[in-house]
Design brief:
two-stranded antiparallel ribbon
Length: 72
Amino acid sequence: MTSRNMMVDDQGLLNNFAIEPTMYVDANVSTGFTKYAEKVNGRFAMIGFVSLLAIEVLTGQGFLTLLKNSLG
Protein backbone atom coordinates (compact mmCIF):
# COMPACT_ATOMS: atom_id res chain seq x y z
CA MET A 1 0.00 0.00 0.00
CA THR A 2 1.46 3.32 -1.01
CA SER A 3 0.08 6.82 -1.14
CA ARG A 4 1.69 10.09 -2.07
CA ASN A 5 3.92 10.55 1.00
CA MET A 6 3.36 7.41 3.07
CA MET A 7 4.27 3.78 2.61
CA VAL A 8 3.46 0.68 4.61
CA ASP A 9 6.30 -1.83 4.62
CA ASP A 10 6.01 -5.63 4.57
CA GLN A 11 5.69 -5.74 8.39
CA GLY A 12 2.69 -3.42 8.37
CA LEU A 13 4.60 -0.45 9.79
CA LEU A 14 3.89 3.03 8.50
CA ASN A 15 6.84 4.78 6.89
CA ASN A 16 5.92 8.44 6.56
CA PHE A 17 9.38 9.84 5.81
CA ALA A 18 9.73 12.09 2.81
CA ILE A 19 10.40 10.42 -0.49
CA GLU A 20 13.86 11.36 -1.69
CA PRO A 21 13.78 13.32 -4.95
CA THR A 22 15.80 12.25 -7.94
CA MET A 23 19.12 14.03 -8.35
CA TYR A 24 19.61 16.49 -11.18
CA VAL A 25 23.08 17.52 -12.27
CA ASP A 26 23.49 20.16 -14.93
CA ALA A 27 26.24 19.09 -17.32
CA ASN A 28 26.72 22.61 -18.68
CA VAL A 29 29.14 24.62 -16.58
CA SER A 30 28.37 28.31 -16.99
CA THR A 31 31.10 30.42 -15.48
CA GLY A 32 32.96 33.37 -16.90
CA PHE A 33 31.63 35.61 -19.65
CA THR A 34 28.22 34.09 -20.30
CA LYS A 35 25.38 35.96 -21.96
CA TYR A 36 23.38 36.05 -18.73
CA ALA A 37 26.32 37.41 -16.70
CA GLU A 38 26.96 40.11 -19.28
CA LYS A 39 23.27 41.14 -19.28
CA VAL A 40 23.20 41.43 -15.50
CA ASN A 41 26.48 43.35 -15.44
CA GLY A 42 25.19 45.77 -18.09
CA ARG A 43 21.97 46.35 -16.21
CA PHE A 44 23.80 47.14 -12.97
CA ALA A 45 26.08 49.51 -14.87
CA MET A 46 23.05 51.33 -16.31
CA ILE A 47 21.47 51.62 -12.86
CA GLY A 48 24.71 53.04 -11.46
CA PHE A 49 25.08 55.56 -14.28
CA VAL A 50 21.50 56.78 -13.95
CA SER A 51 21.95 57.02 -10.18
CA LEU A 52 25.03 59.21 -10.61
CA LEU A 53 23.13 61.45 -13.02
CA ALA A 54 20.26 61.73 -10.54
CA ILE A 55 22.66 62.68 -7.72
CA GLU A 56 24.18 65.37 -9.89
CA VAL A 57 20.79 66.80 -10.89
CA LEU A 58 19.40 66.75 -7.35
CA THR A 59 22.45 68.24 -5.61
CA GLY A 60 23.83 70.48 -8.32
CA GLN A 61 27.33 69.07 -7.76
CA GLY A 62 29.22 66.24 -9.37
CA PHE A 63 29.76 62.95 -7.59
CA LEU A 64 33.49 63.49 -7.13
CA THR A 65 32.88 66.94 -5.65
CA LEU A 66 30.40 65.48 -3.16
CA LEU A 67 32.85 62.73 -2.31
CA LYS A 68 35.71 65.20 -1.80
CA ASN A 69 33.56 67.45 0.42
CA SER A 70 32.34 64.56 2.57
CA LEU A 71 35.82 63.17 3.15
CA GLY A 72 37.63 66.30 4.01
